[in-house]
Amino acid sequence: MNLTQKIISSHLVEGNLTPGEEIAVKIDQTLTQDATGTMAYLEFEAIGLPRVKTELSVSYVDHNTLQVGFENADDHRFLQSAAAKFGVYFSRMGNGICHQVHLERFGKPGQTLLGSDSHTPTSGGLGMLAIGAGGLDVATAMAGYPFYVKMPGVVNIRLHGQPAPWVAAKDIILEVLRRLSVKGGVGKVMEYTGEGVAYLSVPERATITNMGAELGATTSVFPSDEATRLFLAAQGREQDFVALQPDPGAAYDEVVDIDLSTLEPLIALPHMPDNVVKVSAVAGRRVNQVFIGSCTNSSYTDLMKVAAILKGQIVNPGVSLVIAPGSRQVLTALASNGALADLVNAGARILECACGPCVGVGQSPVSSGISLRTSNRNFEGRSGTADAEIYLVSCETAAASALAGVITDPRDLGDPVQIAMPETFPVDDRMIIPPPEPGADLPLVMGPNIKPLPVATPLAEQIEGEVLLKVGDNITTDHIMPAGAKILALRSNIPAISMHCFISVDPTFPERALAAGGGILVGGLNYGQGSSREHAALAPLYLGIKAVLAKTFARIHMQNLVNFGLLPLVFADEADYDDIKQGDRLTIEDLRANLPTNTVQVRNARSGKTYPVKHTLSGRQIDILLAGGLLIQVGDGAKG
Ligand code: MIC
Ligand code: SF4
Predict the structure, then answer these.
(1) Rounded to two decimals, what is the model's pTM?
(2) Whether pLDDT at 639 is above 70
(3) Nearest CA to ligand 1 atom 11
(4) Helix, strand, or coil (residue 457)
(5) Domain shared by 257 and 281, yes or no
(6) How many C-beta atoms lie closer than 10 Å to residue 505's C-beta?
């Protein structure tokens, strides 16, 4: 067996290892973050259990920590009260980005982790099977239910040779994205092997598994080896180490070979993470801002490299350099060894240990500005500046460019910087509050911005409605439900946040949808890629959307639609997409009878055509739709 199959089979509750068939997997650990966590704990409350049933569940606060207005602070207070009430560890504001802290303090090789954030696969760098999902799936896992997913195909990415000088882990995953695209990983796990693995530390492996999310992959995983043991030992957690490797000669569904010794520094151009070229091909373009941080590249070694490059120099006058360390542990280490002073002396603006600019919480670039970022997503508008251009790079390229003021190949700097992994990290878990002993009936503390969950309804016999919006390929959840500090503050208030749905595509959409009493959405390939935010399903639900007709769907978003009773349908013939115009009236009849037999048809009143559609839903997902959403199903189950 390969490593993916080994971990899945040791957690398999239902199904078999045939790719494409639905399996149920036992979940050992869960994580949530503030922007998805408020919903997840409201959902857990609705399920009706007093306490989580997982081995470990952690609630992080890292996405929106600006606390502009009371809404955000109220959410954090609610999350702290929910963690105490339901038996969940609470990582306080300022303690760091969920994925970085989870890697440092909680991740365990061979275990499963489900997180309400699409970059949960970061912990795959430790040999975990770590999967991102919507809040309701995570709430369900906290309630002790297994996680359902289609058994992925396993792609073996074989890393050959030693990375060329100045080639970073980021360049390796950018190369994978260049080759496979943002759709290339859908329905697959990326499993890394080969002699090149030994050259990568756990945080470097985590950079690669983190950005496997941008491939659309179910997850990515590295073996657990001597580097894993050393990392866990440095975290004071050697007891959590187990060695894990695929069996010799294990079979894979696909193989990708990458020679690390011939790679060059790479860069993703606006506005997609797979729009990758060599840094040298675009060197010399002016840069207005450089952001170093995010769950992709904010580890100790990342920032030590940056400090070494910047030491004794000053940031170019045309550049604003902002740095957000990934965790309090990283920041403490930099503070005590002097590297923080090197960063500050060089003119870096140090931000809180949080997601920050990555999700548009502060530091929006200037109009038409060019921002070089070490983060993972460069979707249009995500930075908060509609016409900014975001480029994705390694820490080395970011630091070199911040000094030069133009996009710079780090190889121009001469000898590469070498940073050794420390033997011990400054471990201090006092900003992580363990849950109290079971027994006490603690309150959930809610501010006025926290509104009840919207209720899904059982699938109707017939859906009839206007095509309220027709969009193209690769529509992201940032298009459907934008982030940024102002909108993130509304994550626990669905009526209010819904008024921002699709506004970057069509500002009139929310009002038109409400006025029409709801309708239907039409999308292209890979609809709903990106974030796990279930608000991208909850807002359309609130606005009355009944069905989404697309060429293909991204995994997490499709499950989120199902969880809230919205029907995801796929064109049987992609050419029918071209026949539909925004404003057409569509009718889908005999749904309850035709869904289980996959014989659904959609009639277009304007063109008079009937389109055969199919779905890729499992029997379980059909049952959820017929029942009116997962919450109704699970809630009933939990009550007996
Ligand atoms: C993201 O990077 O898009 C986010 C913000 O972390 C999201 C979660 C969210 O929208 O709250 C994700 O990746 O799932
Ligand atoms: Fe946070 Fe950005 Fe990572 Fe999402 S991608 S978890 S917003 S740092």
Answers:
(1) 0.98
(2) no
(3) 35
(4) coil
(5) no
(6) 15
* 392 touches ligand 2 (CB under 6 Å): no
If asked whether residues 56 and 149 sit together in one domain, one would say: yes
Q: Of ligand 1's atoms, which has the minimum distance to the CA of residue 119?
A: 13
> Does the Cβ of 32 fall within 6 Å of ligand 1?
no
pLDDT band with cut points at 50, 70 and 90 for residue 130: very high
List the one residue out of 568, 636, 634, 633 whose CA is nearest residue 602: 568
Per-residue pLDDT averaged across 389-407, rounded?
Answer: 98
pLDDT tens digit string along 135-157? 999 999 999 999 999 999 999 99
Closest ligand to 361 CA?
A: 2
**Whether the Cβ atoms of residue 119 and residue 294 lie closer than 8 Å to each other:** no
Is any ligand 2 atom within 6 A of the Cβ of residue 294?
Answer: yes
Judgement on whether residues 220 and 97 belong to the same structural domain of the protein? yes
Among 123, 125, 101, 105, CA closest to 113? 123
* Nearest atom of ligand 2 to the alpha carbon of 35: 7
* Whole-angstrom distance, CA of residue 184 vs CA of residue 157: 13
What is the predicted pLDDT for the residue at 306?
Answer: 98
Ligand 1 center to 531 CA (angstroms): 4
Average pLDDT, the chain: 97
Q: How far is the CA of 21 from the centre of ligand 1 (A)?
A: 27
What CA–CA distance (Å, rounded) separates 178 from 210?
16
Reported confidence tier of residue 456, pLDDT bands at 50, 70, 90: confident
**pLDDT of 640:** 43
292 CB-near residues (< 8 Å, 6+ apart): 298, 302, 303, 306, 321, 322, 323, 324, 348, 373, 374, 395, 398, 399
- Listed residues 368, 388, 411: the one ending a domain: 411
Same domain, 588 and 475: yes
Q: Is the residue at 438 inside a domain?
A: no
Asked if residue 336 and residue 317 are part of one domain, the reply reads yes
Residue whose C-alpha is closest to residue 264's, from 392, 397, 158: 397
- Residue 359 Cβ contacting ligand 2 at under 6 Å: yes
- State the distance from the centre of ligand 1 to the C-alpha of 296, rounded, in angstroms: 13
User: Of ligand 2's atoms, which has the minimum distance to the CA of residue 33?
Assistant: 6
Closest ligand 1 atom to 532 CA? 14
Q: Are residues 398 and 468 in the same domain?
A: no
Choosing from 117, 476, 481 the residue with most ligand 2 atoms within 8 A of its CB, the one to mutate for a pocket test is: 117
* 253 lies in the same domain as 305: no
Residue 170: domain span: 3-262
Ligand 2 binding pocket includes 211 (Cβ within 6 Å): no
